[in-house]
Amino acid sequence: MIYVIGIGPGSKEMMTLEAINAMEDADVIVGYKTYINLITEFIEGKEVVQNGMRQEIDRCKNAVEIAKTGKKVAVISSGDAGIYGMAGLILELVSKEKEDIKVKIVPGVTASIGAAAILGAPIMHDFCHISLSDLLTPWEVIEKRLRLAAEADFVVCLYNPRSKGRSEHLAKAFKIMGEFKDGSTPVGIVKDVGREKQEKFVCTFDSMDFERVDMTTMVIIGNKSTFIHEDQMITPRGYTV
Amino acid sequence: MIYVIGIGPGSKEMMTLEAINAMEDADVIVGYKTYINLITEFIEGKEVVQNGMRQEIDRCKNAVEIAKTGKKVAVISSGDAGIYGMAGLILELVSKEKEDIKVKIVPGVTASIGAAAILGAPIMHDFCHISLSDLLTPWEVIEKRLRLAAEADFVVCLYNPRSKGRSEHLAKAFKIMGEFKDGSTPVGIVKDVGREKQEKFVCTFDSMDFERVDMTTMVIIGNKSTFIHEDQMITPRGYTV
After folding, report:
1. What is the CATH number of the domain that holds B74?
2. Taking the mean position of all CA atoms in its chain, how far away is CA A85?
3. ipTM of predicted complex
4. Based on the structure, what is the number of domains in chain B?
5. pLDDT value at position A53?
6. Residue A65 belongs to what domain range?
7. Residue B239 within a domain
8. Cα dihedral B204, B206, B212, B216 in deg (nearest 10)
9. Could you tell me if A173 and A146 are in contact, meaning their C-beta atoms sit under 8 angstroms apart?
10. Which residue of B lies nearest to A116 if distances are taken between CA atoms?
């Protein structure tokens, strides 16, 4: 039995009851060490298998092997397990096994939703998620999605916006979207959603400071109707109030 | 004080701890009657203000007036309050008030995430949300977004896909996306996510049966890499397994 659990952005308050119950029911907890550190209160007395970044395949293969021994395994993702998390990889690996291994995906609050609640209501209308990581996706595909999303006037949520190895991706993304996004478009930035060091900034498309952004930051770019009121970013649904 | 709460798709298990705590802390619960029926265990001993569909503005104005009397009000949305929910409207109304009314947005699991967990892992890669309701959005804007989202090869999650008054919207949307979505593209359909009557279907773009879909259904259309394995819909992130 494998639970693939989205633990939400970080705090216990943003976890679902199902995520907590699944962690409590598991014999073994498997996860990226940074995420394991967010759930220390749930790992007491349990076997813990943790490893580093970019070791997702090893981690998931490990989980499948442990599940074959009859133990209940919880694989942890931050946010939602089905959004740039471990759900797909676990299901792909299990589909190649001859044995029947039960998998239960336990949904969670993804980073865009957590960040939106802190910013105000920026994703009240049609929006999209685009990851700027080209580790697994060709950069041309990412560029195409950025351009078409901006043309469609989606609110755009950027995942993996900027890392040490890819410090220029975010500026490039803004340049591409700038063809359709006006300079006055509100942009919301939340670092470390729901964690101790949480920080929030609101600015405009033209005044964006890329240096403020790292891998644990969510960047949300508004649509043509999005406005800033005091320190809040609001995308109206369209009600006349 | 107003809590704007996303209660998740319907079951208590998919609620966050913060949503439960906020409901328990509130003096008054305000919501659409269908959603109030999902949280009966939390309304005992509390004042409840409920009304029908399309009365969102009245409902939120009511909540603001009650908050002015000093009571703690919880405004309930299904899914996440910041995604086609009540968060934006409450913030817009409060921004027009002279009094300082504190608003806390409490995030939740939105329908696409809940449906995805039931289908497998369909939104593992870049995706978008498009509402097919033209009550508040011109149909041309919706058409444009559908076309560009399909061209960008996003996984597409359709909210408000079909109602009695708009029975043709979904078929029209598929016709538009058909310019770019191949007939063999997997489509996942989940009715009443997390509720008693929950139902799940997986089919292809060409074999889609629009009659199966109503207002409480989530429709998820895959990207070029999405595949069906047994009854699961999986969009690979791109790992070589």
Report:
1. 3.40.1010.10
2. 8
3. 0.97
4. 2
5. 76
6. 2-106
7. no
8. 70
9. yes
10. B82
